[in-house]
Structure formats: structure tokens, C-alpha cells
Specification:
The protein has 176 residues and is an alpha+beta fold. The protein has a domain at 102-174. Helices cover 24% and strands 29% of the residues. It contains four helices and twelve strands. Strands 8, 9, 10, 11 and 12 form a five-stranded antiparallel β-sheet that branches. 10% of the residues are buried. Mean pLDDT is 78; it is low at 89-95. This is Copper amine oxidase-like N-terminal domain-containing protein. Residues 38-90 form the Copper amine oxidase-like N-terminal domain. InterPro entries: Cu_amine_oxidase-like_N. Residues 1-20 form the signal peptide.
Amino acid sequence: MKKLLFMVTILIFLSKSSEAFGDNGVSDPVFQTVHYVINSKHVETEGEYATLNYNGHLYVPIRFIANQIEGSIEYDAETSTVILYTHNSSDSSQVIGPKVTPDQAKIVAYETYHLVHVDEQINIRILSNQERNQIPPDASDLTPVYYFITGNDGNNQKVTICVSSNSIKHHFMYSE
């Protein structure tokens, strides 16, 4: 919903600026239904994503694209930078994927935090800014992509363990 509101605000701004400065031959931005084929697979945008056609150029929702290529995306508001991590690149200088496997992350949860049960579903994602405050200091310069492992400890309490995708040495017990 925030994305749609943002896009509408931009459209209003653009339409008002063209009225103020006269017609400059630039077409009005239009939301357009676009069909995507990514890695030979037909995919459609979900409800909250829209494609904008402005002056003959398509502006696509980057999070939608990142999800389709099984990548990760981050936005640094301080520097106005969009960071896209691809996990299937053949270029060895780019992020290729996690160095830690989900099974290795589970072992950390079992052995270090003494969990007696771990849920089958293990998520991997970029930490939010609030979650980054919990990163161990020696891991603060690593890519903030962590496995989230939920399970039960010896007291049958539900806990979540975060294990870095870069190194099994970097982990913490997540607390909200």
C-alpha cells in the first residue's frame, strides 16, 4: 500500500510539474500491465507491485524482480542506495550465495543454543535495522543476511536463533 501511495504521489507531482512548466513533449506516466518471463518462466506481478511506463521506459518493481531471481534487496535510506544481491551469478567477484548451509545453521542452533526441536521451515533474509543492533560486533561488517531458525529449548520455550549466512561463528538469539 505504501508503494502504491508513493507511486501516486510521484504521478501527481509529475503531472503538476508539466502543467507549471508547459508541455515539454514528455508523455504522462502510466501504470501498465506487463507480463514477465524470467529465466524462461512466466511470472505475473502480485497485487502490490505495479509497472510504470514513463516516456517510453518501463520502471519495474525491484523487490519483485529480486524475489523472482531468488536474490536479496536492501535499501540504504541514508545514501539513497538500492543494493541487489544475486545468488546465482557466475562472476566470482559478486555475492554468489550463502557460505553457510541451512543444515549448518541448524547444527549451531542445536549445539550452541541446546534446542531440542527445530521447525522445518528455516527462513533466510536481510536483517532489519532493528535486528542489526543484535549482530555481534565482530560480524557487523559482513553482509546482514541471516538464517532464522525457530525451535524449542530445554524448557519447551519457543526461541529464534539467527545464524549468519557468511560464517557459523556469527549468531545470536533473536529477541523482539
